[in-house]
Every structure is written in structure tokens, then in C-alpha cells.
Amino acid sequence: MAKNYRVERDVIGKVKVPSSAYYGSETERALGNFRISGIVLQEEFLRNYVALKKCAAVANFRSGKLDKKRKDAILKSCDFILKGNLMDQFVVDVFQAGGGTSTNMNVNEVIANKAIELLGGRKGNYSIVHPNDHVNMSQSSNDTFPTAMNISVFAALGDLIKSLKELERELGRKKDEFRSIIKPGRTHLQDAVPIRMGEEFRGYEGEVGNAIRALELSRMLLLKLPIGGTAVGTGLNAGSKYRKYIIEELCREFGAEFRPSPNIFTEMQSRMDELNVSDSLVEAAIALGKISNDIRLLSSGPNSGIGELVLPAVQPGSSIMPGKINPSIPEMLNMICFQVIGNGTVVREAASAGQLEINVFEPVIIFNILFSIRILEAGSRTFARKAIHGLRADRKKIAEYLEMDPSIATALSPYIGYGKAAKIARKAYREKRRVIDVCLELGILDRKTLEEVLDPAKQA
Length: 460
Description:
The structure is a single chain. α6 (141-177) runs parallel beside α12 (362-388), α10 (272-298) runs antiparallel to α11 and α10 (272-298) runs parallel beside α12. Strands 1-2 form a two-stranded antiparallel sheet. The protein has 18 helices and 8 strands. It is mostly helical. The protein has 3 domains: 22-137, Fumarase C, Chain B, domain 1, CATH 1.10.275.10; 143-396, Up-down Bundle (Fumarase C, Chain A, domain 2), CATH 1.20.200; 404-459, Orthogonal Bundle (Ribonucleotide Reductase Protein R1, domain 1), CATH 1.10.40.30. The protein has helices at residues 25-33, 43-62, 68-82, 101-118, 131-135, 141-177, 197-220, 242-254, 264-269, 272-298, 328-352, 362-388, 395-403, 413-416, 418-431, 435-442, 447-453, 456-459; strands at 5-9, 14-18, 182-187, 190-196, 224-225, 259-260, 309-310, 392-393.
């Protein structure tokens, strides 16, 4: 009966690895040690890590350190994986040993074993292509993992920014569509002086624009890469030409203007650039959450709420109340915002816990940042298309509110003083009457003057 495992050896001893596995002994040990969540790092991050290894092989070949036969085999192996193959072989839990060492070795082993096969060997015969000596040549987990982080977050932020710009455009369209609608403003959730609904949406458009600019600025910080620092930033075992060559290859591979960090020790000790991104994501979540809350509040009703806005109906709202329609899309966005804010707390704690030459908590940092980016990307796009695009204003209800708004008495203050204007506003509110009718009854100015002064269009 054939054995369903092979025996590999590492510095600790012998390890049984499933015969079919493309990973090796260090990954197998990680599987045994870290049976935690069942969640692995995102596929986009793992693909970018593989692409980084591909660039490293070319850089090592150009440096004269890696022979052409092994270089070609590693490149073919990486290309095979980058086409979507063997992704089930990346099995290390998010919650693993610090520094991403287990993930780095998982990547090295899968690439090596596929390269061995391509050269006609059997998996585990590392004399042909070795995970450490060849795939990981001139590298360490300590410089490759944060480099893969920067590359992955840089790419993902590009997608998020596109999604937010779509939302910004939809809010801009509503700003123009609602420009002529004058409605009561509200401060402290109480009636306030009139405002144009278009100006409310101009505010929302600006909040999204501010979030976009903050993300764009934080994204640019990620172009500085620590690759070539190897273990502690000194570049031990990398060689003098390697760093220049791998930066060139990464720029070519990803189409971005990556550059070597001017202070590689800072980039390896600190995850402040990722923290900056995370904080910008939290700021975006707070802005989107505020907008979503406002849309929910202004669309509340239809009879007992504010009801100034009418959201598109996307699904039945109740399992027991027939005909009820809920603000499902804004509710979804609110939940995403809560999650992003929570993820930001994880990133902040992890970033603050780095010690000496590296921050070992990088796996949980990258997982949470990419998670936040992807749910914000999908959530903001869905909010734009399924909530804002089809949003309508209930002009009749808005006109009714505006007619009875006591706050328009504010415009009387320059004519009769704040105290008298306040008394008129209170009387109008208590008696459920229009301010102009109370003024006429009390003989406050003539009708023509009152109609001009109390015209909501001149107050908004």
C-alpha cells in the first residue's frame, strides 16, 4: 500500500507532509500549531507575494546569484500560480507566528515544489529547487512580508478610490437635482433655518471628496519599499545590486513607481504607513456612516417619520408587517462602517506593539486593512447604485414642513430684535400657525415686508 505522505526534514527534525501537498515541512508545522480561525490571508495578498518572489528570482539572476535553469523554473512556477492554480495550497491561518514567517515559507515551499515538478523532479526533492536557498534567496520574511503588504494595499486602495469617486459623482448629481428644493434645516435634531436640499447633498459630496483625498495621500506613502533589508535592515546576504534590480522588476511587474525606502530601518521597524492608511479608512467609514445615518433619518416614515426622502425599494422590509420597506442599503453601509472602525482599532493596537527591528504583528494588520478596503469598496459602490442613484425628494411633504417652520422667524431679528422674534417663533409653534400669520396678527411689519423678509428662498 502506497504511503500518502512524504518525509521532509527541517532544523527541528522530521515532518510528515501529505504526498499531494505542494507545501512543505514548515507549512505543515504551522498547520499543526495554528489551528485557530480557519481563515487564511486574502488571495490578492498571496498572489502579490508570489509575484514578489518572481521578481526576486529575476533580480537574483541579474545579480549573478541564481542560475538560469532555476530562475526559469521559479518564474514558470510563479506564473502557473498567478493564473489561479494551487491557491488551495496556501493554508496558514491569519493568526500565526509573528512576522508572517509561516506565510513566507508557505509561499516559498509551494513555488519550490511546483518548480521541482516542472524540472522533472518529485515534490520534496529540494536539491533541485530549495524553498530557502533559491526561492527565498536574498530575502527574509522581515522585508518581503511588509513589501507584499505595501504592494497589496496600494493596489486595493486604487479600487476603493474608484468606488468612492462613483459615490461622489452620484451625490453630486443629487446636489444638482435637489438644488431648487428649500427645506427646513435641522440642528440638534430640532427645526432650524431653511436650507436648500442641494446644499445638504453638497455637504455629503464634500465629505466623500475629503475621504478620497486622505486615502490618495496615504496611498502614496506605500510606494517606499523595505525590500532588500533582509532580516534587520542591513541587507545581509542580499548583495549590493539586488535591491536596485528587484525594485526595477517590481515596478515592471505591477506598473507602479515603487522606490527603495530612504530609511530602510524605519520601514522595517514601523508600520506607520499602514497605520496611516487604516486611519484614513476609519475616517472614510465615519464620513460614510454619517451620510448613511442622515439618509435613513430623512427617509424615515413613511407617515410617522421625517419622510423628506424616498429610497428605492430593494426588498420587503418585514417578515410580519406586509408592505413595510426598510432602508436596507444604508443599514448595510452602516454595518460596514462599524466593522471598519473595529478593524482600525486592531490595526492601531498591532502597529503600536512593534518592538526593536520589526513589527511582528503584520499578518493581522494586513488582513484587517485589506478586509476594510474591500468591504468599503463594495459597500460604497452598492450605496451609490442602489440607494443614492434612485433617491427621490418628497417635495409636497417638504413644502408642508417649511410652511410651518418656526425657525424662519430668525430673519426678523435685525428688524425687531432677537427677543421679540423668539416670542413670535414660540407662539407660532405652540399654536401650530405660520410665522407670517402670527406677525400679521400682532402688527409686526406690513405684509409686503414680511413676505420679503420671511421668504425661505432668501434665507437658504
